[in-house]
Automatic annotation (TrEMBL):
Gene3D superfamilies for the chain: alpha/beta hydrolase
Name this polypeptide is given: Prolyl oligopeptidase family serine peptidase
InterPro entries per UniProt: AB_hydrolase_fold, Peptidase_S9_cat
Domain of life of the native organism: Bacteria
Location of the Peptidase S9 prolyl oligopeptidase catalytic domain: 383-564
Length: 590
């Protein structure tokens, strides 16, 4: 097959990388964005027609810590020395003011590790510094202009995420590896014993915390935590996977919730008191991330394979505003739909003309899910241009489809994934596509599944695995060495006994390298991957070479698990694209 002439899509990867790195700060006839420049300043970008403010203000970011205070729409730079701090607050319109505050003496020195915005006992805004001294003692130091400071030594481990002494509340998040965080509610004024819940912190406002809870054996759900009485109340919301949430900034108790259903994100407004929930009229599909929640409203960024990117704003009257981002809509003709292949849920992208080949795309995780977003930096678009169908597989083990779907794969990965792959091959057959014209594409854990799929189905064309999790036993050992909670997590899901055979462990270099002689396999891995080990990929590639199998290992010098610079984005995109087209036998021409 030859790739037809089409609009080059490679630039989309760079545009998307640059745009998603921008800060969404506010709304003024359009999104107010911030981007860090080479000189170390934050460049504020205002839309055309914005009123009464410089179009290109620059805010210095030279403090020991810099914080954007959404409640005041101002950047706060903190400079700390042995005896006190100097604070510079700069608004989005360029206005600036400074103040200083003394610090209590410290015998062992101290290091500033974090800063949050909060409210003091009188209801005035304040800053709370997290400092650690030379012997490892942590303290929270509350400071404010012209006000005496306050020191609180936390009884709980973790990071301060909320401070409001109007309600005698300090919330500390204790990360627990793969599990939901443990949130500790401490009382800096009364010093009563901490109380805890297990959930993910989403927002805090007016004496309430907004939490997302994912209990074992159940789907995600919302909680409102009364920080005065320390009583959590479950919030009835829409069906689907709760991804994120914020309190509305309109003075009510209502909540904006991002819910994933059928592979796309939707917006709902929920009232915890009336228990009513209604969707917002947001047209189209895509992945939505909440990026701002300030006094004027809530800002979001949405991206979709076919519809490109957009900025979304929910104002105080609960009206939605939307403007196109820099990633344009897809210029070709294609259709996206959510489908079930038996028990297997998928997102299928189909070109207008009958497809000539198919790619089964496998997300990482495993406990994540395939959404309609700009996966693989726009590569799906080039595949659609070439007449290639894309199947975004939410394989057994994914989240978003209930606990039974997630748990069915545990310690049965071969059987469960065999069913998923077979169902995709059957769907492709209905389009006239043979297994020899189907490639598997995966990243991280999905990369390991791409290799496993070729082991299970020797009639597939081959696989492209990016930063794959090749050796589950060694990976679990390394994760548990850093955080012991991973030992139980991996033990529930995988056979990781050292006494097991490679086939029993499933995700093992020797087992994953038993692909068929006719299958082309490419493994792409960064030399500085902080999540998976490129050395494990090399073990599998060396084993394949010993068997004279057509494997290619590409090591990207200096790259991590995901690209972190424009050059790395372009390099990863080029490597994955060329490898995938090679597996499918598509001629890219000159």
């Amino acid at each position: 097959m030859r790739l037809p002439d089409a609009v080059p899509q490679r630039d989309v990867a760079q545009v998307f990388f640059t745009e998603r790195g921008r800060f969404f700060l506010s709304w003024d006839t359009g999104p107010v964005l911030g981007s860090v420049q080479e000189d170390g300043t934050l460049h504020i970008e205002r839309p055309v027609g914005a009123e009464g403010a410089p179009a290109h203000a620059r805010i210095p970011l030279d403090g020991d810590a810099v914080l954007f205070v959404e409640a005041r729409e101002a950047f706060v730079a903190v400079h700390m020395n042995d005896t006190g701090v100097a604070v510079v607050e700069t608004g989005l319109r360029g206005d600036s003011e400074s103040w200083t505050a003394p610090l209590p003496p410290s015998e062992h020195g101290r290091t500033l590790t974090d800063v949050v915005h909060g409210w003091d006992q009188d209801g005035d805004p304040c800053l709370v510094l997290t400092v650690e001294d030379g012997v490892g003692t942590v303290a929270f130091l509350q400071i404010g202009p012209g006000k005496p400071g306050r020191t609180h030594r936390p009884a709980s481990p973790g990071q301060l995420v909320h401070w409001d002494l109007r309600h005698d509340a300090a919330v500390i998040r204790e990360d627990r590896g793969p599990w939901d965080s443990r949130l500790h509610l401490e009382r800096p004024l009364s010093l009563s014993a901490p109380e805890s819940v297990v959930a993910r912190w989403a927002d805090g406002r007016e004496g309430r915390g907004l939490l997302i809870e994912t209990p074992s054996g159940a789907g995600s759900r919302l909680l409102v935590w009364d920080l005065t009485s320390s009583s959590p109340i479950r919030v009835a919301g829409p069906a689907g996977h709760v991804d994120d949430a914020r309190f509305l900034r309109d003075g009510s108790e209502r909540v904006l919730t991002v819910v994933t259903a059928d592979g796309s994100d939707t917006l709902h407004v929920t009232d915890p008191q009336s228990k009513e929930s209604s969707p917002l009229p947001l047209h189209g599909t895509g992945r939505i991330r909440i990026r701002a929640a300030g006094p004027q409203g809530i800002g979001m960024y949405r991206v979709s394979t076919l519809q490109g990117s957009s900025w979304i704003w929910l104002d105080l009257d609960v009206n939605l505003h939307q403007t196109q981002g820099e990633v344009p809509p897809y210029g070709g003709e294609a259709a996206l739909s959510h489908a079930w292949y038996g028990r297997t849920p998928v997102l299928q992208y189909l070109p207008k003309r009958p497809p000539v080949a198919a790619v089964v795309s496998l997300h990482g995780g495993p406990e994540s899910l395939e959404r309609d977003e700009l996966r693989w930096d726009g590569l799906y678009r080039e595949l659609l241009d070439a007449g290639v169908a894309v199947i975004g597989l939410n394989y057994c083990g994914s989240t978003g489809y209930g606990p039974d779907h997630t748990r069915r794969a545990w310690k049965s990965w071969t059987t469960a994934f065999q069913e998923d792959v077979d169902s995709c091959i059957a769907a492709a057959a209905a389009w006239g596509i043979a297994p020899a014209d189907i490639a598997l594409l995966g990243g991280s854990f999905g990369g390991a599944l791409a290799l496993l799929g070729c082991v299970l189905r020797e009639d597939l064309a081959g696989a492209v695995a990016s930063a794959p999790l090749i050796d589950i036993r060694r990976h679990a050992e390394q994760a548990a060495a850093a955080d012991s909670s991973y030992r139980e997590w991996f033990g529930e899901r995988f056979d990781i006994a050292a006494s097991g055979t490679p086939a029993q462990r499933v995700f093992d270099p020797k087992h994953l390298s038993t692909t068929a002689p006719g299958q082309r396999v490419f493994v792409v891995h960064g030399s500085e991957d902080e999540v998976t080990q490129w050395q494990h990929s090399k073990l599998a590639a060396d084993e394949a070479a010993r068997q004279e199998l057509p494997w290619t290992l590409v090591i990207e010098a200096g790259a991590g698990h995901v690209p972190n610079t424009l050059d790395e984005v372009e390099n990863r995109y080029r490597n994955i694209r060329s490898a995938l087209l090679d597996v499918l036998g598509i001629d890219t021409g000159a």
